[in-house]
Amino acid sequence: MVEPLPHVREIPPYVPGRPPAARPGLTSYKLSSNENPYPPLASVLATAEQAASAMNRYPDMGCAALYDALATRLDVETDQLAAATGSVALIYHLLAAFCGPGDEVVHAWRSFEAYPIAVTAAGATGVKVPVTSDGRHDLAAMAAAITDRTRVVLLCTPNNPTGPALTHAEVAAFLGAVPDRVLVVVDEAYLEFVRMDDPVDGPALVRAHPNVVLLRTFSKAYGLAGLRVGYAVGSAEVAGALRAVALPFGVSSVAQAAAVASLAAEDELMARVDSLVAERVRLVAGIRSAGWSVPDPQGNFVWFDLGAGAADFAAAAGEVGLAVRPFAGEGVRVSVAEPESTDRLVDLLRTLTPPVGTTVGSSRST
Ligand SMILES: *Cc1c(COP(=O)(O)O)cnc(C)c1O
Questions:
Q1: What is the pLDDT of residues 287-304, one digit of tens each?
Q2: What is the greatest pairwise CA distance in the chain?
Q3: Which CATH class is domain 15-40+267-351?
């Protein structure tokens, strides 16, 4: 009988955000996957449609137009870039390139649920360092968790699902405590939504540290989640290793074309991001006025720390047409989206009792 390798059985399942259940007479909102609620820009859609008309051809395996556009935009060399089918794929690629069985990967927890999946799939050992009570990475504990077997550290900023982002000073100090032989991955999936003092300057980290690699995506701020395209920025050595292990022709021609068109339409797309950030500010104000609090949200989502109450909260949200993302026994993540979804969530909070330990105003800022 054929059998997969033993670690394959240990891979935890990925739980996708559920679509809302249809409720007659009520518009439902999908707030479970941190998607961009705006439809594609006409210019991006037209370019993607044109690319689709050549779907009998393989895509450009070298992603030349995308790398050129990104290199100009980020002021890096094209060989410092590696694109893949979403930044989730890049996590797999970097573990394939830098980790083997017995190697350790340090990351915060709760953090992005793809991390333990990818680490286990690589046959490596995950070392989960609990986030602080306000949902922040505990960088001192993460540095202390590094051993001779550590090959990779994953930082998620802003952290999905808890929300807070790291400052540049925090990451720079952390890098000073990490040996050069350890690859430090900075997952910046929600970078465009950050509004705080001293935000992480990823390209500056890459210039200063050959062991840093940034992961970015077109899925969130740019609204291309369905097309699957993300990229890494690092040293030529690191980026080259990621390109080497990638599946050939992974990023489709439609995705490449849409990504390039999105970079060309960046002003329009960033205006939408500004609107979502304004909606986030309004949501946080509503949450506070309803007597609840959340950790400082710097992405397009908020986190309710609910412990055992997560499932009931998600069910109550479902009753009013809001599909949210519960993490059993821990909490609920809710995406920032249409204003009506904000109003409905705040109305719901007013009818529920905040969990013990929730203190109004404990969220630090918006
Ligand atoms: C959404 C997300 C990604 C990006 O996923 P894609 O594969 O690019 O769609 C990466 N990291 C985190 C933390 C995310 O939340």
A1: 999 999 999 999 999 999
A2: 60
A3: alpha beta
